From TrEMBL:
The keyword RNA-binding does not apply. Pfam families: NB-ARC, WHD_ROQ1. SUPFAM superfamilies: P-loop containing nucleoside triphosphate hydrolases, Winged helix' DNA-binding domain. Residues 160-237 form the Disease resistance protein Roq1-like winged-helix domain. Residues 2-79 form the NB-ARC domain. Keywords: Leucine-rich repeat. One of its GO terms (molecular function) is ADP binding. This is NB-ARC domain-containing protein. It comes from Physcomitrium patens. It comes from the Eukaryota.
Amino acid sequence: MKQVLMSKKFMLVLDDVKDKNQINDVVLSDVLHFNKGSILIVTTRNWEVVKSYPTKIHKFDIEELDKDASLKLFTAYSCRDGDELPKELIEIGKEIVRSCNGLPLSLKVLGSFLGGQKRLRCWERALQKLRRGRPLDGDEIDSEYKLWTILKISFDALKVEEKNMFLDICCFFCNNGGTMKGTIIQIWTNKQSGVEEQDGSIVLDMLVHQSMIKIEKDGVIKVHDQLQDMGRKIVEEEKEYKDTRIWNANMVPMHGITSKLEGIILDYNMKDISRRFIIKGLHFCSLRILICNIVTK
């Protein structure tokens, strides 16, 4: 691909770049320097990724939605059967929209959550939680903190099986382009006796309805990066889920694997001592998901 880019003018778009090496793996800086007229567009949540890139850079910060656009997006997800909020929910709806700070993902997720709640009291409780906030990273005036607070409200409202499937997807099944819906259902069907394939499909459909995940036309399940971050943060920090899922070797507790462990990614590139330490503990845990990353030469 680099050879092709060297010989032609191009416009290349790289979405959600997390590391500068992701850019260099596709197009080196000297390609852009010598290939005049070519354009590289990068979207990222970390300015440091492109800050030191040795070519002329134009930075565009994506602003939050204004009041009208925010209300329109929120209404689209909270009132799927109509174009406007019911009269009794208009004022409380506007208050909720203001509390979302113009963040599109929060408007979408919270709108989807409240879409199934028609009682004024349910909307008032959601607003109270927004104003109260949660002890997550950041402070209350920070938009990232506000987003996490809103997403956490939607997570807390999920049923137990919906929470567990969402966390499984965030920890194990949304890397490398996502995972097929059928694969997730099969894993969950085999997870415990009494879980039918139809039940697993219903849980997935509920997560889609709540805008916690999305299923592409080809059946691949994907999760927004910030929702994935939230899911993994919950597993790392909340007592109920801590030590239940391990997706990299650095997460293995110093005291070893406990009986709480439900899923793990075992990377055969890790040090032998680490791999033996992990495998030794697998026999006494409640393991239901084991993913082995084996690199073949």
